[in-house]
Amino acid sequence: MTALAEGSCGSLHLDDGLDLRPAVAGDAPTIALWMSRPHVQRWWRQDWSVERWAQQIAEQSAGEHSLPCVVSLDSEQLGYVELYRVRHDRIADYYEYDVHDWGVHVAIGEPARTGQGIGRRLLAAVAAAVLRADPRCPRVVAEPDVTNVGSVRAFAAAGFETVGEIDLPEKKAVLMMRPRST
């Protein structure tokens, strides 16, 4: 069984100079800063304290639901990624999931790095890495806010297909999937 399928992994070199590594408590100040920035806070609504982020990272890292990660481009940290098992997430209530489906949430925290196509590159690279790491995974799932046009476009450009819209408690979302066959 792969490390990713077991819910943990070391650093992963992705395509296009991107690297992904598990977040640790020491990343909490950076993640808290990113989450407080207006372009991220608007969608994530997690502008929490450093202490709360440290606790969140520890809880996620110890559980089976999700894996918090920091993404870098050419050694510069620029964003946050959560990989999660759909079967352990509320999104499982909204479609006929496969027990091996993975989901992804992405935030480009550095404002100067937005609008450059990095999100699209990152989403494509993360989806490809998940599908390589877990051969049982038939698809990677995402649910960006329907009004977050930039995010929806980035997912589509990264090979995610729109399946429909779903009403989550805090947003209307576009259910998108990157199937293995893409």
Automatic annotation (TrEMBL):
Q: Which UniProt keywords apply?
A: Acyltransferase, Antibiotic resistance, Transferase
One Pfam match, given by its short name, reads Acetyltransf_8
Q: Which domain of life is it from?
A: Bacteria
Domain called N-acetyltransferase: residue spans:
18-181
Q: Which Gene3D superfamilies match?
A: 3.40.630.30
* Pathway entry: Siderophore biosynthesis; mycobactin biosynthesis
GO MF annotation: an example = acyltransferase activity
The protein here is known as Lysine N-acyltransferase MbtK
Report the source organism. Kribbella deserti
